[in-house]
Predict the structure.
Amino acid sequence: MKMSAYKVLVGLLLLGAVLAAPPWNEKRTKWKQIQLLPGDYSDLDFMNQEADILYDHEEEVFSGILEPYENSVLDTYDSDLEEESLDPDAPSVPGLFGPEAKEGLPTCLLCTCLSGSVYCDDTDIKSIPPLPKDTTHFYARFNKLTSLKNGDFAGLNHLKRIDVTGNRITSIDENALRQLPELVDLMIASNELVQLPELPKSIVNIDASYNKLHSNGIKKEAFKDMSNLAFLYLAGNALNYVPVPLPESLRSINLQNNNVQQIDDDTFCNSKDIHYVRKALELIRLDGNPINLSKTPSAYICLPHVPYGKY
Ligand SMILES: *[C@@H]1O[C@H](CO)[C@@H](O)[C@H](O)[C@H]1NC(C)=O
């Protein structure tokens, strides 16, 4: 078919569409926008309901809608209309390559972005690149990160996992992680942290093994109100005592190879209530600490299993 024939046809279709089209807001979110360059349209049967084609004379491209879910109508593409948020809860569409990183490279060229996951493992990065707003899982293992800054994860309201294992992180800004409403996993093992920042209450897994944490680097009652916390890995640090009180949700605490020298009846149990049972806490690792666990037999009466360690 010749171009002029297209124009006539498109004009007729457009007229029909204007007459037949339901309100935009009913249809718009259901269509996939496509753009076709001249020559690409040969195998599209745009007279049936599978595809509709519109020729844009200025851009010299065909745009169309594939697989409309209901009646076939032409979509006169209008970027202003597209900007209108029809569903305020709809996830934002990130740029194809994400925001620009400091190095001038878009984050998703420097890293690999796959749906909500951003993988920046082994990329030699020294700072956190700007992340797409819909990031749910962020991996930057084995890099040269030295700190996590307040702005690094700002506004990432769907971020569930941060894995920065195997870097050189010595500090985390106080507000870097605190305001992440959906953070579940913080993996920060094998770094050089001396202090843990405040963490959101949503957290379930913390792995800060093999850092340089002393007990004074963990806030008083830091884990008390983390009612979802299940796994706390703090092996290979320099902790002088068990970070009490531990939340009821806790299922395992790994404290091997620290400097814990004493525990008492209130560390895991409750000296005021002999009927108290801490049934969730299945695993306590205290091996590799300068403590003789035989000396405090009444410290384990509420536990399903006695701790691992020297007896
Ligand atoms: C721990 O203490 C108990 C009782 O005081 C003692 O019998 C045991 O030999 C000690 N164990 C170790 C490994 O020092």
Remarks:
- Residues 24-86 form one domain.
